[in-house]
DNA sequence: ATGAAAGCGCTAACAG
DNA sequence: CTGTTAGCGCTTTCAT
């Protein structure tokens, strides 16, 4: 391996000068610079970034914590975050937890061990306190997880409010047997949605039906299976807040197989305004998110923090909108 | 920052001993070990992995090159690869190229600069030679890109053969005006598919219709737009190999809007056997892949290579199957 | 504008 | 089983 020292020797300058050439430092004469560059090319020199990272105590790398990449919402989220980080000169390591607390804790350990300059949390099964405990003094930002924001920055959607709006819409159509699907109800985001769902009932003096709360429903297949149990014999349900457009698509598929008319017999609302909501029949009423904006703001913020800008934790809330299509 | 030296001093042993404790080296007495551990906890010591990586010249990190994460095929692929790498003790950095050659080359530079122990290529806009040129001596494996495998290992599907099968199926139904969609025709994978498409024609003494080759078609929206142009006035087409189930779903949506019956007026075949192929009406005929197996084999292989197992480039081909549903 | 020198935190021979 | 020693390749004062 040819090192900075070899290049220095070979071009008759000192290591410092070579280092200055590599990092484009201004204090180096044009002649020396071109001489050094020539030698570097001749000997096929490549700087060792591991040494640089070690020396500077900066990995130029940000970790992203998600449950599972093969999920339209998370893959979209990571797409934007990762691309924005790249633009700011940071690589991203994607960690899938599959909702396993141990894996999640290991990532916090790596963060403490200086492997990452910061961590972006998009979902967690731990409490805000436990996360703070595991990551003290480290830079950590939550993206669309509805934490209070006492210990770290939070960028999120108004999940509670917009779920309430969608639920109220269904209630105002006279629907009472109303169901709610969540992916992982222990996450703050999903709890916020449920809160909105319950609140919409409360506003009309109604109580939600606890037997129509379904957890761990996240994919098309889950939607189909849930639909089959719901639609089979007699209709146990008149409306469903589906948690994602994919679940909604599965429910609609199941309804078709079971001769249930959507929305006449049962209204369905998805989440995320994914293009899949356009290809089902009927098209899916859904809730839009603000992933590109959120990602952009979040990455700017986190880079500032890495560069030493100090400020108390902030919480920024984006407004999702209910989009009324044909499934409700 | 408390270092290994501090812990050594504080617990009355040498740095080496502390190092041995950290890495669970056997040659250290139980008493010394517990004494050192106690001091480490007391002083909240965390090892600096940047130093370790530098010292060992190993980043314990593998880069994955993909065009775009927000794509059901790639997000599934990365899900498995990333999880398998994690199990083997490697982190993964996901690099989206968005088909930009410059970004791709920068990743090769990082690879040369020791930022990654290896690189997994799932798609590239460069030739096998140029890639080899950019990454000489480095460990690099192609995953489902149909390179020849002269310079690096290749794990891929029998894209050509299975596309030929699906195309032959359509031709045997008497369809002649047959279209083909690709995402990025410069990639070897897509070229292989096209070759299969053409071959199926040739076998029946037919010529494929060049005006029915559509490139840069990859999403639901693309499928809808293409369908709208194809189905609008008079039917210019009787069958389409759609390139992905998402494109197929978009085409079906467009067909519904334009009063075209699938498959009576036009047959459609997708790719990947994604669950979306179950929720459209009709359900989509498609081609299965072998992502979990491929990922598992590939990661085992790459880890062996990192650990110094030498062997000439291998090429392993998996068999995808044509699944005949209701859209064809 | 350039060089000398110190050192980042850790591992790994080697010696005992 | 434990300690000594010698760096890994680079950046960064501090001189000059």
TrEMBL record, chains A, B:
PROSITE patterns: HTH_LACI_1, HTH_LACI_2. Keywords: DNA-binding, Transcription, Transcription regulation. The keyword DNA-binding applies. The lineage of its organism: Bacteria, Bacillati, Bacillota, Bacilli, Bacillales. Residues 2-56 form the HTH lacI-type domain. This is LacI family DNA-binding transcriptional regulator. It comes from Gracilibacillus xinjiangensis. GO terms for molecular function: DNA binding. SMART domains: HTH_LACI. Pfam families: LacI, Peripla_BP_1. PANTHER family: LACI-RELATED TRANSCRIPTIONAL REPRESSOR (PTHR30146), NTD BIOSYNTHESIS OPERON REGULATOR NTDR (PTHR30146:SF136). The keyword Repeat does not apply.
């Amino acid at each position: 391996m040819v090192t900075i020292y070899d290049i220095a020797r070979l071009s008759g300058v000192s290591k410092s000068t070579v280092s200055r050439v590599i990092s484009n430092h201004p204090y180096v004469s044009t002649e020396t610079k071109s001489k050094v560059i020539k030698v570097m090319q001749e000997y096929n020199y490549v700087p060792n970034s591991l040494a640089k990272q070690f020396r500077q105590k900066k990995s130029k790398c940000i970790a992203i914590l998600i449950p599972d990449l093969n999920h339209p919402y998370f893959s979209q989220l990571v797409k934007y975050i990762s691309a924005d980080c790249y633009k700011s000169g940071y690589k991203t390591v994607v960690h899938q937890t599959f909702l396993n607390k141990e894996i999640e804790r290991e990532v916090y350990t790596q963060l403490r061990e200086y492997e990452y300059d910061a961590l972006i949390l998009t979902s967690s099964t731990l409490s805000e306190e436990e996360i703070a405990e595991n990551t003290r003094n480290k830079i950590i930002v939550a993206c669309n997880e509805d934490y209070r924001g006492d210990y770290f920055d939070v960028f999120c959607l108004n999940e509670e409010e917009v779920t309430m709006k969608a639920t109220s819409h269904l209630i105002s159509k006279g629907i009472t047997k109303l169901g709610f699907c969540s992916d992982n109800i222990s996450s703050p985001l999903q709890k916020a949605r449920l809160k909105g769902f319950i609140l919409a009932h409360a506003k009309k003096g109604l109580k939600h039906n606890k037997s129509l709360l379904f957890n761990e429903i996240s994919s098309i297949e889950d939607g189909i299976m849930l639909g089959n149990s719901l639609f089979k014999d007699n209709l146990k349900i008149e409306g469903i807040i589906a948690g994602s457009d994919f679940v909604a698509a599965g429910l609609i598929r199941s309804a078709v197989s079971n001769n249930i008319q959507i929305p006449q017999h049962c209204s369905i609302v998805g989440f995320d305004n994914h293009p899949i909501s356009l290809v089902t029949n009927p098209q899916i009423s859904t809730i839009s998110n603000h992933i590109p904006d959120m990602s952009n703001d979040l990455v700017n913020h986190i880079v500032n923090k890495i560069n030493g800008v100090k400020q108390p934790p902030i919480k920024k809330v984006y407004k999702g909108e209910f989009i009324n299509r044909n499934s409700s």
